[in-house]
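Hi, here's the filled form for the chain we discussed.

Project: internal
Contact: R.S.
Residues: 211
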Amino acid sequence: MNNYSNYSAKEILLEYYIDNGCVRQANENYYGAIFCFTKALEISPNFAEAYLRRGIVRGILQDFTGAVSDFSKAIVQNPNYTDAYFNRGLLWYRSGININALENFLKVTEIDPGYSGVYILIGDVYWKEKDYAQAVKYYTQAIETEPANMSAYYKRAHAKRVLMDYDSALDDFNKFIMLNPNVGQITLTKAIRKLFKKEIKEARFSFSSLN
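And the returned structure, exactly as it came back:
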């Protein structure tokens, strides 16, 4: 909770509604959260954070149009608002509108190349579009940004497999295992053997490299 001692009356009321909106959201009182964020916007119509937060809650409630509108308004107020681009892209992605999702995710990387979580989503967009080489490129950037990103190694391995880069795919599976010790080795080995059954049968690479 913020210390309001040095705030004006307007700032105190604004922060009150933002804080209470966040609390209500955390308690899954989503309509109450929207009420609070809307009240904040009545006090300060240009407050980008309030648009962002209300957009997130509207997204949770599957109000796609309202959420996109709020993220867009946040961006109007702050053209470099990476969280707004990211969340708007996420909505487009979940709706299957990949071109809009990609545009927003790439804008995030343009503003903040170190933004956590965006590269793996760009890779996922390219995967869905069957552009596996680009998927590998962005999964690699996800790993460079977050070296312990297990999901990025796992997804990059699948993309490399489609590109028939089998040994490198196995290297990524091995790294995934190292980063995720809770995965049973025997279970995962069986899964990988099943996945690469055709390639193993044709002796297109040495499966013995699997740890």
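Let me know if anything looks off before we file it.
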